[in-house]
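#structure-requests
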Amino acid sequence: MILLIDAGNTRIKWAVYRGGDILLGQGAVAHDDVTALKAAWAAFPLRRAYGAAVVQPALIQQIAAQAPCPIEWVRTLPAAAGVRNHYADPAQMGVDRWLSVLAARRLVPGDVVVAGAGTALTIESLTAEGDYLGGLIVPGYRLMLASLADNTARLNQPAGDWCAFPSCTQDALETGALEAMAGAVERARQRLARHTGRMLPPVLLSGGDADRIAPLLASPCQIVDNLVLTGLLEVADKT
């Protein structure tokens, strides 16, 4: 059995697989509840563990102390699992972004845009040939609204509803944030199509705010949970 761990900015997600595609269990805990992982993982005879972390070293050590076997903490590489990384310095690329790209390679055989709508909106471009060309980092939904509230007079108010032609400030805030995010994804999709000379690629969308922007994106667009864990599964399968 293989334990996969995604230590993200707000939560620690985990999953246990057998045989590469049989999900036996999964869960998530907040950072301050890390000790609960030990009991959750004790139910499985774990032999291997792979993790991805964008948290402080102290928390990584706490997570490792809960596991019944050593954890191999994955890092961003110049190439892995059939993907060539064209990032100028792969070490500067967040491992969560890299694993999302590897997950996309596992799930989609052709060109694909991978968008993670979390604290930040990350947008990655991957070709059918396995070339990761690069990506964008955009403020996420809440960061956009918080920035306007903190730095602009009279905009410290709750967002309203999306609409085609906002006629009040609350709706203008909501529509502006969502349109900016969806527009960045669609431009990345068009740019990848121009680069490859092929049709518009599909979008794999994940993250807590995926549901907010999915209705604004052209098809095909698919919401996929836990892309980082899927990327770790791909690494485990290829190791």
